[in-house]
Each structure stands twice: as structure tokens, then as C-alpha cells.
Amino acid sequence: MLKWISRSFVVLAIALLMTSCGSDDESRIVDLASLGVDASTQERCDPIGAQCMLPIPNDHFTVVDVSTPTKLRLALVKESLPANVRGVRIDPTDQNRADGWSPGSALLVQIAGLDAEKSKLPGLRDAQRSLDADSPIVLLDTTSGKRHPFWAEIDANADADETPLLIIHPARNFHDGHHIVVGLRRLVESSGRAIAASKAFAAYRDGVATTDATFEKRRPAMGSIFYDLMNAGVQRHELQLAWDFTIASTGSLTGRMIAMRDDAFGVLGDAAPTFAVTSVAENPNPEVRRRIEGTFELPLYLNALGKPRSRLVLDQAGRPVRQATPFTAQFLCNLPPAAEAEPARMSLYGHGLLGDRGEVNGGLTRRMSADYNIAYCATDWYGMSQDDVGTAITALTDLSKFPAIPDRLQQGFLAFLFLGRLMKHPQGFSANEAFQLGGHSALKTDELYFDGNSQGAILGGALTAVAQDFTRAVVGEAGMNYSILLDRSVDFDGYLDAVAKPAYPKRYDRIIGVAVAQLLWDRGETNGYANHITNDPLPGTPQHDMLLLGAVGDHQVTEYSLRIEAATIGAAAHVPIAGGGRVAESNPGWLLTPIDRYPYNGSAYFLWDTGTPASPVANTPARDGHDPHDDTPNIPQVRALKDQFWHPNGAMDDVCAGQACSAPIPPENAD
Q1: 3-state DSSP call for residue 35?
Q2: Could you give the CA distance from residue 116 to residue 69 in angstroms, rounded to a whole number?
Q3: CA 190, CA 152: separation in Å to the nearest integer?
């Protein structure tokens, strides 16, 4: 189904010319069967790959659509996608509304006999080699004309009877709408013998013509790929595989959420959202002066009254449609004791994995609130809250049901935005007596921030990218891109063994399934929004600053994904990032700008070390020693950093005294 769009007449002419400059085989005309290609599936599968959906991402699985910014649209075919044990294949209807691939796409390809070490693949330890002139893997961004950084790994979770996939991770997300060309060369087996290209790919590379019109229709596109790689110093004859893909446009990734936000706040106008206080508790503990619970209303864009498993209602153009009945969300706010004397700065709080707003009552926020006079308010991450556990389990048994998660997540983002407006609006919370102490409002309504941990951080970056009422956010135990996170998280163990594996027993089916799901998950987590948090803000949205906090050896959210996030948003790094030998990479900050002086007031990345062994290089969870996942927010120096950052131009001091950031395990987290 590949449809080639010429970038220029000149490129087309040269590409066509080059197809006549191959090997001595060029005079031969062969039939398709001699290349091992099934003529009946070559449009929905890629004949140059080892399996139907490989390599992926891949513009072979797109069609021309002049109505989209990329002039493409995904065209995944259900019959090519994995089926669960009941024979139900993934329905790609929603994915096929996208005009390109995920900006955090992991490239998946299968190369029989590949020896990663002898092929000198740039791995996680030495990813900076990915930009070397002689790198065996080349990712070329033809839109910018630059090579793109990456690291490659052999799938450690492959089934014993299957050739493991080669996984290539961008070390910084690809830019929205950009076109990427991939070239693989000089790959060898353990014996050192060069790996032969597939017969189908060699036919394109070497100018071997076929009698099949469909196969030949792709030849100009392949010629363009060879031409682009040649300009990057990669010779056509040395290629063992090459393909291209296009990243989805900003509108495709974020357009639904922006449309919902703008429509909802357009209806709201200058008013405060409607809310009701349902309970008030005085002094529930020494660190909370008053706890307030209630409900608030916001426009609804889901069917089924917005309940779990509901879906966005879309018009013919794919835009969310506001429903007649509003959505009722819950809130929980804690006012600190110091707010009785002086109004408190305010922060939204995002809870962890499949939890609920009640997490704001826990120790991660109470001490911060009491020590620094912060009023916290929380709602649920509708879409990945406790009420959505059943939806998540259903989706893992049938990935066709997965779209309900990102659809409801976007409604959840809108709930957080409306809660933030209630906190800031003079006729919102501060006008209600429940939020007044000592005869005055307990809220400093001109200072609103965001604080999220774990899942709250993974989703919180996306929320920050669309937020208009706050411009500074802290994400702790952070990361992004579930297609990276799941393999490397102990949190997925139970779901994998009890649900995902029984439904999709083959590793190949699961990894392709997650890659396809990520195309939708991008609409509901940071991976799809990261290019627009600190730079190139989304329409009608201010620029934001983020403080990113991670932990060495995190068992639940790998620090490797956080370094990709830091590089993507351009966060400066506290250096040294880690002590000698404490992380796998030889140079973990190779894509990051060091913080060269303090005080520092921009977006920043800090990695904290409480002594846990370094995370494994393979795509498996860290399991050794103490799990430091909840350590970081409980470290006193981290609370000081957050306090310094949470001011309109908040400048942070060097709380690590010029050294790698380390601390003892907080007493409350001791094993």
C-alpha cells in the first residue's frame, strides 16, 4: 500500500536513474515467486521484511491523503495485525485516522543470525556512536538533513523458538511531521560472516526487475531512499535493508485534546466551573489543616456518560463533539496549617498507576505541603484510574478495545484543566468558605503549579503541554512512552503473566500490538506532546518549564526513558548525572546541556541515587535491591528543589553541592 510522494522532481529523476546502475543482475527479469514474495499480501505486508508487519514503523503501511499535513494517512490492515487466542485481530480503525507514526517510535526489525556485538551496534552503553560516520545503523531525518541519535538492542524477551527482534530506540523523540530514512549495513553473524539481504530488498537495491506491476510501483520510492542515504555517506551496495517512515503531524497527535480544551473553555468563558463541596474535615492529621472534597462539572466529549470504556464522539472530520450532558468529576483538596496565616501556593496533583485522587493524602505530598505552605488539589486520571482497571484488563485481552483508554484520558486531562481553573478563579474555590481560613482565602490564586509522580508524571507531561493556567510542573519518578516502559517495569509483571501472555502467547504479537497501541496512547501521555512542552508550544498555549526527577535503578519507571524525555524537551542536566559506574551508559548526558551555574531557573533534570544497583541494559525490569521508586519525592533536598522551582521565575540552588545527587533511603521507604 505504499504510495510515494516525491519531494522534488530532481530527487525523482536521480532516483530513477540510479535504479539502472545496479549489479550485473539488472538485465534479468524475474518473477515474484523467485524472490519469496507472496503477490496476494505484498501490499498489506512488507515483502522486504522478515515478517508481515516488519519493519515498523514503515511508510509502506500508508496511503496518500492530501488533506493531512503530512499528505499521508496510516493504512494498517486488520488481517496483517496480531490476533488473540480467540482469533480476534486488532482493529486499526482509530490508528488509521493518524497521518504518521509515533514521535517515540521504537523501530522493530528482524535480522536472522544478527550478532549485535560483532556488528558493532550502538547500544545503550555507547549510544553516542549512533552518530558516527561508520555506524552500521543510520537514522536520517530528511526533513532536517541530520542524522538522528538512537540506541539499539536485541529483544531480551523473545520466544525461544523465534528470531529476536532488533529494537532501535530514538535517544530523543523524532520531530512531528518529519520524514525518516533507515539504513542497515555491515551486519554480521557470530562467525563474522556478512548477513545477506532478503531477495526482495536485493531486487530493489541491485536493479533486478520483476514482472509484477505492484512490486515495481515501489521502485522509485526505494530509489529515493537509496539516494537520501547516499547523501548521508551510506553506499547503496552495502545496504542490507532500508526503508522510511513519517512521523505524525502535531495536529494528528494533539489536535483532539486541543479541540476539546478550546471548545470547553470557550463555553465556560470568564466564569468559574460549577462545583459543590460535599465534605469538610478539620485537622485530619498534623500536616493538613483542612481536607475538602466535592464535585465539579465540565463538558463531556465521550459517549456512555463518560463512564469507563466510553469512547470519544467524533464528527465526520474526526473532531470531538461536546455532549448535552456534562461530566461530573470529583476533587479532593488539602489546605496546609500555614495557610491560616498566609495564603498557600497551589498545586494540582497527579496520582500513580491506576490509582485515584486519594493519593494526595499520602506522605509524598503531606510533608511538602506542611513545610512549604502548598495547597494540593487532585482529581482522578480518568482513563487510567482505579475505576479503569477493568478497561485495562479488557484491552490486554483484546487490543481492539484499547482506544477507550486514551479517549477517556483526554477527558481526564480536561478535568485537571477545569480543576486548575477552579483553583485560580476568584469566584472558584477561594470564594467558598470551605477554602477560607482566618477570615481570608487560604489560596494564593496567582500561583498554580503541577506535581505528579510515576503515572502522574507520565501523564503529567501531556497535561502540562496543554495547560494554560500553570507554566511550571514537577514530574517525579518520571518517564514517557509506554512502549519502552512496559518491558522495563515490575508493575507490568502481573498483567503480563495473568492477562497479556494468555491472550497473546507469542512475543512477536505482543510487541507489535504495543507498537500499534502506542499510536493511540500518544494522545494520552507525554510521548505525543513532549516536543511542545518547553519549546514550540501548542496553539493558544504558553511555554512551560519542567523539573524532571528520576532514580538510579528504578524498578517501576526506567530512568532510561526519562533521559529520552529530558533530551526531547531540552531540559538542562545537573552534572555529574551519576557517580562513577552507577548507570549503564558511558556518557548518560551526551544529549543534554549541563547546568553550568546556579541559581538556575529553567527546565532541569536531576537523577537521584539512594544506592540501588544500576538498571540492566536489556529491556527487562530492574529487580535487584531496594526499589527506589518512591524515594525521590521524600528526599529533603528534592523538596527544597521543588519549593525553589515553584515560583513564577523560580531559581534552583545546587542542593547536591557540585556532586552527583545522592541521599540515604528515606526512613519511610525503608524495606
Answers
A1: helix
A2: 37
A3: 17
Q: What average pLDDT does the segment 461-483 reach?
A: 98
CA pair distance 102, 115, nearest whole angstrom: 28
Q: Give 365-393 pLDDT, tens digit per residue.
A: 999 999 999 999 999 999 999 999 999 99
Q: CA 414 to CA 115: how far, in whole Å?
A: 48
Instruction: Give the helix ranges, DSSP H, for 467-523.
Output: 482-485, 493-495, 501-503, 507-521
Q: Are 568 and 605 in contact (CB under 8 A)?
A: no
Residue 133: how many CB atoms within 10 A of its CB? 9
- Mean of the per-residue pLDDT values for the chain? 95
User: How large is the average pLDDT for residues 592-610?
Assistant: 97
Q: Which three cell numbers stand for residue 183?
A: 539504513
**Is residue 1 scored above 50 in pLDDT?**
no
Residue 166 β-bridge partners: 109, 154
CB of 473 closer than 8 Å to CB of 544 = yes
> Rounded distance, CA 523 to CA 245, Å?
19
137 membership: H or E segment, kind and range? strand 137-141
**DSSP code of 193?**
P
Measured CA distances, 102 to 22, 56, 65, 317 (Å)? 34, 11, 18, 21
User: What average pLDDT does this structure show over 165-192?
Assistant: 98
Find where cell 531512499 sits: 225
Q: Report the C-alpha gap between 490 and 627 in whole angstroms.
A: 10
Instruction: Give the amino acid at 326.
Output: P
pLDDT for 671 equals 83
Cα-trace Rg, the chain: 26
By CB neighbour count within 10 A (0-12 exposed, 13-18 middle, 19+ buried), where does 334 fall? buried
Please report the sign of the dihedral spanned by the C-alpha atoms of residue 347, residue 351, residue 357, residue 360: negative
**Cα 522 to Cα 7, 46, 97, 630, distances in angstroms:** 27, 25, 13, 25
User: What is the C-alpha to C-alpha distance for residues 259 and 470, in angstroms, rounded to an integer?
Assistant: 19
Cell numbers that stand for 582 in this block: 552507577
